Amino acid sequence: MNRRMFLRNSGIAGAGALFLSHFTPKNLFGIGSKSKTDIAVINGKNYFKNTLKAVKMLGGMNTFVPDSTKVGLLINSDFEIPGTYTHPDVAIAVAKMCFDAGASEVITLQNVKPEYWQRSSHAEKYTEMIDSLGNIAYNQFPCEFDEAHFIKAEVPGISLKSGEVIKAFFDVDVLINLPIAKHHASTLYTGALKNTMGVCTRKTNVGFHLDSGVRNDPVYLAQCIADLNLLRIADLTVVDATEVLVSNGPSGPGDIEKPMKIVAGKDIVAVDAYCTSLLGFENGDVLTIKKAHEMGIGNMNYRELQISEV
């Protein structure tokens, strides 16, 4: 972990940024509020434009991506059935905003296959941009440790004390988490917090499920996921909650529901907690979110925050 990242992450708890909306949305707790927006929710079928709007409501991508910085995108892309992966329109919109903000480099922290981008109607228009993305091709599940690409990181967690993590996770200046909100058989819900497992080797991730001595111990698994996020908290989380798998997750096939929402925010725990409500869970049902809240990673009581929805 470099000095700049350490200083930034050390100050997360005490330095909450105020993100003023660029327009006056319909607020969940009042019409026409001009106060700050913590969680932006955009409804509708145009996933690309709605992603642009969501980040704009948080103050714009310049709020998160300073000029000439290196950005890492963690995209849940490695599934086949619609409703199990983050729609590429969302990822393309985020990448575009990063470059527009002046990012010197944008990379995907997991291998993203070419066919993933081709699922987007915007792929042809943004072919040059997509081709310019750095792609961590060696990080594809099941990925094994090698000293060229991974480090053995100490984790200041409760259950997780160390993990094999890709070096690029620490090398990027800005981390943007791009999960889909969907069901998971072991954790009930997989969103942004669990998506962080994508930076680890197979050995580390398998340990989440087995190292307690009980296979898929839900308490141990949830604690390990929360612990992992202590290594680095995403600077921005943008969740695809448009067409989502609500049973037989994470790979399906299963039942699909269509909340048709793009949800964005800085507080990864609050964003995940909000998205679980779209899948019918009560706050506290998902242990991963509860553990992360208890550790101070974020606030699962999202109703205490300013939610702006259009």
Describe the structure.
By secondary structure, the protein is an alpha/beta fold. The protein has one domain: 3-Layer(aba) Sandwich (Rossmann fold). It has 11 helices and 16 strands. α2 packs across α3 and α9 (218-228) packs across α11 (287-294). The longest helix has 13 residues, at 88-100. It is globular. The N and C termini lie far apart (38 Å).
Structure, briefly:
The protein has 310 residues and is of the alpha/beta class. The chain contains eleven helices and 16 strands.
Topology diagram in text:
Elements: H1 3-10, E1 26-27, E2 30-31, E3 39-43, H2 47-57, E4 70-75, H3 88-100, E5 105-108, H4 114-118, H5 127-132, E6 134-135, E7 150-154, E8 162-166, H6 168-171, E9 174-178, E10 182-184, E11 188-190, H7 192-195, H8 202-210, H9 218-228, E12 236-241, E13 244-245, E14 256-257, E15 261-265, H10 268-278, H11 287-294, E16 307-309
Parallel strand pairs: 3-16, 4-5, 4-9, 5-6, 9-12
Antiparallel strand pairs: 1-2, 1-16, 3-15, 7-8, 10-11, 12-15, 13-14
Helix pairs in contact: 2-3, 9-11
Roughly how much helix do the residues carry, as a percent range? Answer: 25-40%
Radius of gyration: 18 Å
- Uncertain parts: 1-35
Number of helices: 11
Report mean pLDDT, rounded to a whole number: 89
- Alpha-carbon distance between the two ends: 38 Å
Order of the strands making up the biggest sheet = 2-1-16-3-15-12-9-4-5-6
Strand tally, please? Answer: 16
Overall shape: it is: globular
Topology pattern, helix = H, strand = E: HEEEHEHEHHEEEHEEEHHHEEEEHHE
The percentage of residues in β strands lies in 15-25%
Number of spatially distinct domains: 1
Largest sheet: 10 strands, mixed
CATH fold-level assignment: Rossmann fold
- Structural class designation: alpha/beta
